């Protein structure tokens, strides 16, 4: 979500993203140049206690006060809703979106922090109406994050969401003037995003997990693959109807769960090129970064958030 409050400008370029959860502080610092080349100068994990009392010590050791810092909400801490873009001046946009959302939330809209993410329409179309994403989080959630970081003396400037973090990395895989679908299969669900020209056009959670795809039960595996395929087909059909001016080039999976054959299964049934994403192909990891095996994918969302661009960001 957008900048919460302003602090003095950091001496370091780029953004340092953190995930401060009971037991661990994950972090990544990224810088992207004007040509779109992105470098991760440092990243990793530090142990903290469940009450976060050690977080200030860790933040001091990592010299986090040298950076512009942001964090990423977990999926249960916000809602991402599709709304029709109000035809109002930019200064009135958030107020108009807040009014639209008053019946879409299960709590009072005045108790929500709201931000918006535009979905660019077809530039050749004369239609003025188009959709946009609205992000809503309870004020209490935002206040908790601010207080947690202030207690640890982490200079938090921005709160972001996984969908835009994934968009940032997916954009690095985009072929010129073609859309790109990116599927990240996590422990709680899979997240599908579709990018075009660096912008997020579609985001959807799919109730398929790594554990299901790796299950010892062939029946559970088959059901998970089938459900994933069905939801991808539905999503792509919907996307084609809504955005016929965007041609999808391929689906990138990151990472493909090992020994599941998911990429081949999807490629055979989707009629779309399917590739396994390799972060080292699109990110320059600096000499201080030592990641082993799939550790980079475990830090996927902090890596993506660290590639924040002011031009596109929430």
Account of the protein in words:
There is one protein chain. With 314 residues, the protein is of the alpha/beta class. It has ten helices and 14 strands. The strands form three sheets. Strands 8-4-1-2-3-14 form a six-stranded mixed sheet. Strands 11-10-9-12-13 form a five-stranded mixed sheet, sandwiched between helices. The radius of gyration is 20 Å and the shape is globular. It starts with 14 loop residues before the first strand and ends in a 9-residue tail after the last helix.
Relevant terms:
single chain; 314 residues; alpha/beta; 6-stranded mixed β-sheet; 29% strand
Task: Describe the structure concisely for a colleague.
The chain is of the alpha/beta class and 314 residues long. It has ten helices and 14 strands. The radius of gyration is 20 Å and the shape is globular.
């Amino acid at each position: 979500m957008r900048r919460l409050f302003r602090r003095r400008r950091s001496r370091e370029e780029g953004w340092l993203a953190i995930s401060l959860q009971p037991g661990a502080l994950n972090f990544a610092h990224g810088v992207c140049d004007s040509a779109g080349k992105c470098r991760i100068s440092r990243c990793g994990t530090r142990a903290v206690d469940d009450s976060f009392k050690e977080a200030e010590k860790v933040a001091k050791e990592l010299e986090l006060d040298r950076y512009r810092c942001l964090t990423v909400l977990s999926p249960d801490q916000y809602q991402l809703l599709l709304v029709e873009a109000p035809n109002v001046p930019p200064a009135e946009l958030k107020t108009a979106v807040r009014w639209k959302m008053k019946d879409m939330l299960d709590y009072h809209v005045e108790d929500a922090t709201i931000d918006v993410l535009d979905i660019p329409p077809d530039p050749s179309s004369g239609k003025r109406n188009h959709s946009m994403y609205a992000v809503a989080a309870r004020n209490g959630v935002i206040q908790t994050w601010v207080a947690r970081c202030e207690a640890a003396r982490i200079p938090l400037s921005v709160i972001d969401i996984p969908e835009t973090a994934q968009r940032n990395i997916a954009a690095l895989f985009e072929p010129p003037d073609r859309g790109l679908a990116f599927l990240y299969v996590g422990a709680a669900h899979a997240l599908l995003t579709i990018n075009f020209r660096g912008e997020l056009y579609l985001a959807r959670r799919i109730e398929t997990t790594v554990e299901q795809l790796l299950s010892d039960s062939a029946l559970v595996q088959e059901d998970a693959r089938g459900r994933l395929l069905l939801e991808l087909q539905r999503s792509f059909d919907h996307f084609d109807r809504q955005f016929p001016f965007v041609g999808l080039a391929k689906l990138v999976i990151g990472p493909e769960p090992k020994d599941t054959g998911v990429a081949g299964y999807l490629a055979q049934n989707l009629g779309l090129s399917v590739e396994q994403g390799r972060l080292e192909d699109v990110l320059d990891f600096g000499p201080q970064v030592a990641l082993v095996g799939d550790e980079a994918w475990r830090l996927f969302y902090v890596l993506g958030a660290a590639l924040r661009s002011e031009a596109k960001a929430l």
